[in-house]
C-alpha cells in the first residue's frame, strides 16, 4: 500500500472526470460495439475492506484515444453497461481515505488516500471481452 501523491491524485481525478463526461454523452469504448460486464473485485483472494472506494475502467487496448468505460466499485462489485469489446485494458483505482486533515499551506481540509492496488497491477491487465458477461471477476 502506498500514499497517493497530489500529482497522481490530480491525474486520476482528471481521468475520472474525462471518463464521466464521456459516459454522460454516451461514449465508451470509442463508439464501437459494447457489452455489459459485471463482477467481483478482490485483492489477494480476499474481499475489499468495507471502507474501500474505487473505480474500474475498461479501454480498448488498441485505441488510446477512446474514452474508457468507468464503473464504480461498491461492496467489492462493479457493473459497466458499456465496456468495449475485443482486447481491453482494465485499470483499477481502489483506495481508502484517512481522517480529515487541514493543509498548513492553504487551510483547506483534505484526506490522504492510500492505494490498495498492488504495485504489479498498477498498469492494469488485459482481458478479452466478447460480449455480455455478468461474472467477469478480478483478483488483484
Descriptors:
single chain; mainly beta; disordered N terminus; Immunoglobulin-like; 10 strands; globular
Description:
By secondary structure, the protein is mainly β. It contains one helix and ten strands; from the N terminus they run E-H-E-E-E-E-E-E-E-E-E. The chain has one helix at residues 6-24, and strands spanning 2-3, 34-43, 46-47, 53-60, 69-72, 77-84, 86-102, 109-115, 125-129, 138-139. Strands 1, 4, 5, 7, 8 and 9 form a six-stranded antiparallel sheet that branches. Strands 2, 3, 6 and 10 form a four-stranded mixed sheet that branches. The longest helix has 19 residues, at 6-24. The two termini are 13 Å apart. Keywords: Signal. Residues 1-24 form the signal peptide.
In a nutshell, what does this entry contain?
It comes from Posidoniimonas corsicana. This protein is mainly β. 14% of the residues lie in helices and 46% in strands.
Layout of SSEs?
Elements: E1 2-3, H1 6-24, E2 34-43, E3 46-47, E4 53-60, E5 69-72, E6 77-84, E7 86-102, E8 109-115, E9 125-129, E10 138-139
Parallel strand pairs: 2-10
Antiparallel strand pairs: 1-8, 2-3, 2-6, 4-5, 4-7, 7-8, 7-9
Protein name: Carboxypeptidase regulatory-like domain-containing protein
Keywords: Signal
Signal peptide: 1-24
| N→C terminal distance | 13 Å
* CATH domain class name: Mainly Beta
**SSE succession:** EHEEEEEEEEE
Major sheet characteristics: 6 strands, antiparallel
Task: Provide mean pLDDT, rounded.
Answer: 84
Name of the CATH superfamily: Immunoglobulins
Instruction: Sum up the overall morphology in one term.
Output: globular
Number of domains: 1
Which runs of at least 5 residues are low in confidence (pLDDT < 50)? Answer: 1-30
Strand content: over 45%
Amino acid at each position: 500500500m502506498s500514499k497517493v501523491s497530489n500529482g497522481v491524485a490530480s491525474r486520476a481525478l482528471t481521468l475520472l472526470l474525462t471518463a464521466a463526461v464521456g459516459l454522460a454523452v454516451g461514449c465508451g469504448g470509442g463508439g464501437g460495439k459494447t457489452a455489459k460486464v459485471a463482477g467481483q473485485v478482490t485483492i489477494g483472494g480476499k474481499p475489499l475492506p468495507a471502507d474501500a472506494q474505487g473505480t474500474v475502467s475498461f479501454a480498448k487496448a488498441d485505441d488510446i484515444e477512446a474514452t474508457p468505460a468507468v464503473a464504480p466499485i461498491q461492496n467489492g462489485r462493479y457493473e459497466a453497461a458499456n465496456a468495449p469489446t475485443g482486447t481491453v485494458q482494465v485499470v483499477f483505482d481502489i483506495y481508502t481515505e484517512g481522517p480529515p486533515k487541514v493543509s498548513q499551506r492553504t487551510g483547506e481540509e483534505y484526506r490522504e488516500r492510500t492505494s490498495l492496488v498492488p504495485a504489479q497491477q498498477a498498469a492494469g491487465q488485459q482481458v478479452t471481452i466478447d460480449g455480455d458477461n455478468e461474472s467477469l471477476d478480478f483478483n488483484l
